[in-house]
Design brief:
- The chain is an alpha+beta fold.
- It is built from 17 helices and 38 strands.
- A 16-stranded antiparallel beta barrel has the order 18-19-20-21-22-23-24-25-26-29-30-34-35-36-37-38. Strands 1, 2, 6, 7, 10, 11, 12 and 13 form an 8-stranded mixed beta sheet that branches. It has a 4-stranded mixed beta sheet with strand order 15-14-17-16.
- β27 (590-591) and β28 form a beta hairpin.
- α2 (45-56) packs antiparallel against α4 and α2 runs parallel beside α13 (292-308).
- The longest helix has 25 residues, at 2-26.
- The radius of gyration is 30 Å and the shape is elongated.
């Protein structure tokens, strides 16, 4: 039945196209072109104008565009009507789309954690020239989005006869500074080339051409529409008013002016051949204004401007040669299938990939087509495949294309250069540790079984260097071996007053033979060695000084980690659960010739959205230590906003700013209210209560620790930026904490 419906829809579509073409000739009306200018995010206003043109019944026979105009125009040409475009741009996560971040929703929690630790990540290919370089952003997420949106049009086609509406877009070849007009080729690639803003996005290389944003040569390609046979041109531009000398006071304003001046090529001449020019007011917004509020406003401004020119649009019908009641037949009656349903796979092919990589993908995702099994693919699987090619197989770029074949599709998986090094950089500042810098290098090894080597270096008050080797076999586990050096400088407080400072080196080696990852779930079994070298301690407590002697430990660990939260820092739904049991010894079996120390810890948080802005987050957590001896370096500590910030066993507690020791048995409950204000502003109110004791049975007999804090944070691309004010009955004084950047 589904096939019948698809055939009927296709027949209806073809009928509409034929009728539309016949209408422009049989009736004798003039051909109409819509020309859409570049302008980055400001080009969202084009959608509002298209809504009004559809409402007025203006036939559109040709579409041309540059940069964002090429994206809106290209999608319109394959069948997205204005309402479909409106819906599409609103549901996109543009903070992800216009970056090179990986979509790690289907990857390991450690990979997700890495993404929310570093400010900047980039892939590098050593020993050979990286042809994908040349911009701060490689644009792989944009390219992947275009592939999905243009499903059915990703192979090389003629844009004049192969699309529902003839289309062309413009790029600039910086080899000879020439204009390149796309009338054919791969539509997603043409759109990506047309919007490759120099320095911001890497150029697109086709043959011996190096293509960047077409706005440098022809930002409003009305002449291109005329060459394609347009007799009536409706043009939409989104550029702001020219800047005066007093407006050019900063680097960004000067750079913007240089781009605007260069984009004036052909501009006046193209305006002269335009029959109806609609200049949208985009004041207050820039090329990178991709926030939901900005998109909503820009679309609305485009619609309001077009409605203001309603009489001019209706009058244009007479010039076209149609009356006011005319409505083009089947004007975009349906939009193309965008992988909302699975499509049957006829065959697979792999481009620029090693046989080992091909075998890895086939086995991991069961990419086998035979008579007994009907294989299929959808947008989610396409994204999983390309993410795995970049994350597990270490390719700089990855592409999944679908080419219609018979009653299904041929899937082409194409890879770019193999990564030699993935570089990560993170920086943060807070009012306790001041500035910190962390660098990471992911080095893939060219082996038959994928193996990655991670090197991490943290500079600051807490110096750390770590090396980690992970195997990526086809099985469900990723065996990992790591070695780390920590140079710790920690202030210990007691009831809000600084008690002492301890400096020590920690050498740590860990082998994880079982490291099982699912979408939100990770289970590990590990064996660890720790050596503590105590350098010095500033304290009047000589008894504590005597206890802290250099020592080594062997421990066994079992960990469970689950995280389904929709945001790493400000979740509105989902849950987070982490539990661990460890057994600490000094000879693999005992601790000081007695039974070893058992460590049981867990934390669990849920997020419940009361409305679109307010979220309630209850959390339970605690750590219980059992044994005749508990080394002070592994004792329970509380304070701060994060688990394991200064030392691994640290637990946060509202109202306690610095790290303090508590008894060996500690449990706590916390309730947080998270209120979102505007787009990325958050107010957090947190209250907590905790119990501590030397034995579990005495937990309810001790004084309850109470605390509360209020915080304001702004979620930026550089990480959370904000301040916290708290108070607890343990410290009996308020504390202030300032944080800038991701936590590490």
């Amino acid at each position: 039945m589904k096939k019948v419906l698809l055939l009927l829809a296709a027949a209806l579509l073809m009928s509409g196209m034929v009728n539309a073409e016949a209408d422009s000739t049989a009736v004798g009306r003039k051909k109409v072109a819509v020309v859409l200018s570049g302008g980055g995010a400001k080009g969202m206003a084009h959608i509002g104008v298209l809504k009004v043109l559809e409402r007025a019944g203006i036939p559109i026979d040709i579409v041309t565009g540059t940069s964002m105009g090429s994206i809106i125009g290209g999608l319109y040409a394959i069948g997205y009507n204005a309402n479909a475009l409106d819906s599409m741009v609103r549901v996109q996560d543009w903070s992800y789309v216009i970056t090179d971040k990986e979509d790690l929703r289907n990857q390991s929690l450690s990979d997700r954690r890495k993404q929310y630790t570093y400010l900047y990540s980039t892939g590098m290919t050593l020993g050979k020239r990286d042809l994908n370089a040349g911009g701060f952003i490689k644009g792989k997420n944009l390219a992947e989005l275009f592939q999905q949106l243009c499903t059915g049009y990703t192979d090389s086609i003629d844009f004049t006869h192969g699309l529902r509406i003839p289309f062309a877009c413009v790029a600039t070849n910086i080899v000879d500074n020439s204009e390149v007009d796309f009338h054919s080729g791969r539509l997603p690639q043409a759109m990506r080339a047309s919007m490759a803003i120099p320095a911001a996005f890497s150029p697109v290389r086709i043959g011996d051409q190096v293509l960047v944003d077409g706005g440098l040569k022809n930002n409003y390609p009305a002449d291109l529409a005329r060459e394609m046979g347009a007799e009536v041109i409706i043009g939409v531009t989104v550029q702001g008013a020219p800047k005066e000398a007093e407006d050019l006071g900063g680097t960004m304003s000067i750079l913007s002016q240089i781009i605007d001046v260069n984009c004036k090529n052909k501009y006046d001449e193209n305006l002269a051949i335009t029959d109806l020019h609609l200049q949208v007011d985009t004041k207050g917004y820039g090329s990178a204004s991709f926030s939901p509020a900005a998109i909503d406003t820009l679309i609305r401004r485009g619609e309001e401007l077009a409605m203001h020119h309603w009489d001019d649009i209706i009058a244009l019908k007479q010039l076209i040669g149609i009356d006011e009641s005319f409505r083009p037949p089947l004007l975009h009656p349906i939009r193309p299938q965008v992988m909302t349903e699975k499509q049957r796979v006829i065959s697979y092919s792999f481009e620029n990939m090693t046989p080992q990589a091909e075998r890895f993908l086939r086995n991991k995702y069961n990419l086998h087509v035979d008579d007994q099994k009907t294989d299929s693919i959808d947008a989610q699987l396409m994204q999983q495949l390309t993410t795995t090619m970049r994350v597990d197989l270490f390719y700089q770029t990855a592409e999944c294309r679908l080419v219609p074949e018979g009653d299904g599709v041929h899937v082409i998986l194409s890879a770019g250069n193999r990564k030699s090094v993935q570089l990560h950089a993170g920086v943060r500042y807070d009012s306790e540790e001041y500035a910190s810098l962390q660098l990471g290098l992911d080095i893939p090894l060219k082996t038959s079984i994928p193996v990655s080597t991670d090197i991490t270096l943290r500079l600051g008050k807490r110096l750390m260097a770590k090396g980690e080797v992970t195997m990526h076999p086809l099985s469900f586990t990723r065996p990992t071996l790591s070695y780390a050096f920590h140079r710790n400088d920690v202030d210990i407080y007691h009831e809000g007053k600084r008690d002492y400072n301890i400096r020590y080196n920690q050498f740590q080696a860990e082998f994880i033979p079982f490291n099982h990852d699912l979408r939100h779930f990770n289970v590990q079994y590990a064996l660890r060695w720790d050596y503590m070298h105590y350098r010095n301690m500033l304290s009047t407590e000589t008894s504590i000084q005597a206890v802290l002697k250099n020592e080594h430990f062997y421990s066994y660990h079992a960990r469970v980690n689950y995280n389904s939260e929709d945001n790493w820092f400000f979740p509105t739904r989902g849950a987070r659960f982490k539990a661990e049991y460890s057994y600490l010894t000094d000879n693999f079996a005992e601790l000081d010739d007695k039974a070893g120390m058992s460590d049981v810890s867990a934390n669990w948080r849920m997020s419940f959205s009361l409305n679109s802005r307010l979220t309630i987050q209850p959390m339970l957590y605690g750590r219980l230590l059992f044994g005749t001896k508990v080394p002070p370096v592994f004792g329970n500590t509380i304070g701060g906003d994060w688990f394991g910030h200064y030392v691994e066993q640290q637990m946060p507690f509202a109202g306690v700013g610095n790290m303090e020791y508590v008894d060996h048995q500690f449990v706590a409950a916390q309730l947080q209210a998270q209120q979102r204000i505007a787009t990325n502003n958050y107010v957090l109110i947190r209250v907590a209560g905790g119990q501590q004791a030397d034995k579990v049975k005495n937990l309810l007999d001790t004084k309850t620790i109470l605390g509360a804090q209020a915080a304001y944070y702004y979620d930026t691309m550089f990480g959370p930026v904000g301040a916290t004010l708290g108070y607890s009955n343990r410290t009996n004084k308020p504390y202030f904490y300032l944080n800038l950047g991701y936590e590490f």
